[in-house]
């Protein structure tokens, strides 16, 4: 009986360990009052991003239209409704999550000189998701 209990305890520890390891792949950063993370390259990072998703109230996703291909190295600028920059960064992967105060924001993303701008309202505990897609490049 003691062996069975030991086996169950050890298997639970080993099963839980990867979840803790995955979260360490993504490091929160701050600019002023905005905390954010970016990543999602590969399965481990995708899992780590999903594990902390609930901690952030704005979720951005970057992809190529019609291909299912995700992109990184996207320049991201989040400004308040007056145009004052609160966050300026380059994404480490196809996902960027930010923690913002309730309000209206202007999100501008740029990939290879092709900028997309969207206005978004972020409110308290509710979460807002925006997807940004760029057209396929010629020759793809």
UniProtKB/TrEMBL annotation:
Residues 1-21 form the signal peptide. The keyword Signal applies. It comes from the Bacteria. Keywords: Signal. The keyword Signal applies. This is Carboxypeptidase family protein.
């Amino acid at each position: 009986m003691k062996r069975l209990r030991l086996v169950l305890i050890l298997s639970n520890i080993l099963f839980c360990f990867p979840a803790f390891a995955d979260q360490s792949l993504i490091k929160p950063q701050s600019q002023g009052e905005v905390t954010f993370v970016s990543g999602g390259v590969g399965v481990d990072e995708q899992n780590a991003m999903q594990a902390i998703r609930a901690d952030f109230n704005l979720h951005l996703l970057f992809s190529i239209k019609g291909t299912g291909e995700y992109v990184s190295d996207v320049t991201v600028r989040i400004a308040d409704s007056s145009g004052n920059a609160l966050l300026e960064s380059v994404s480490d992967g196809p996902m960027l999550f930010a923690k913002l105060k309730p309000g209206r924001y202007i999100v501008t993303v740029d990939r290879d000189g092709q900028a997309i701008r969207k206005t978004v309202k972020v409110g308290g505990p509710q979460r807002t998701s925006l997807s940004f897609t760029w057209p396929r490049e010629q020759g793809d």
